[in-house]
Write the structure tokens for this entry.
Amino acid sequence: MPPHSISNPLQLLERSLDQCAEVIAAISANQADWPTPCAEWTVQDLLHHLVVQDLHRFTVMARGSHVDPQAATATVGADWCTRFSDGAAMLMRAWSTADLNRQVALPGGGEAPLRSRIGLQIAEFTMHSWDLAKATGVSNVLDPTLAEQSLAWAQRTMRPEFRGTDKGFAAEVRVPLNADVYARLAGWFGRNPMFRSGPRQTTLK
């Protein structure tokens, strides 16, 4: 299904959450300190980002409020599957009662319908599903429709000034034109599509 033909973005958001939950459920506890395609983040760091930070701030966003990036300070703990599932359910409950046409303030000024915040959330959970799958080598088959939607959103919204060593995103990694959509999505977000999973290599002195 082409990205622009989807009439209910909340169905895609729910699928992106389900996919992320499926990948998280396949991760072993002994993989917590493995590196990920996200620079300097371990699997545990990325799980903390998803469970404690993303699910919290995205629920706040779904309610039409401004986000306090320091509001969620808890730790992810060991039972990350339950924590993610509970947080995902809370996020979808917030969206289910939201007025998607309500005008909300944009960070840089101006207003946009509340529904405009959904694309970011789909892309975030879709990209991080790939990050975790790539980091741990889990065999889950990732949904290409989610990647197509996320790539289309990212190419519309991620401007060059958002990239750099001190910015939120690294420089784009070029991939072959015939690469699959998740490799193209990863490259656009500054990941190395050829990342290999496994424990962090230690350097002998």
User: Anything to note?
Assistant: The helical segments are 9-25, 43-62, 80-96, 118-136, 144-157, 181-188. Residues 1-6 have pLDDT under 50 and may be disordered. DSSP finds six helices and two strands in the chain.
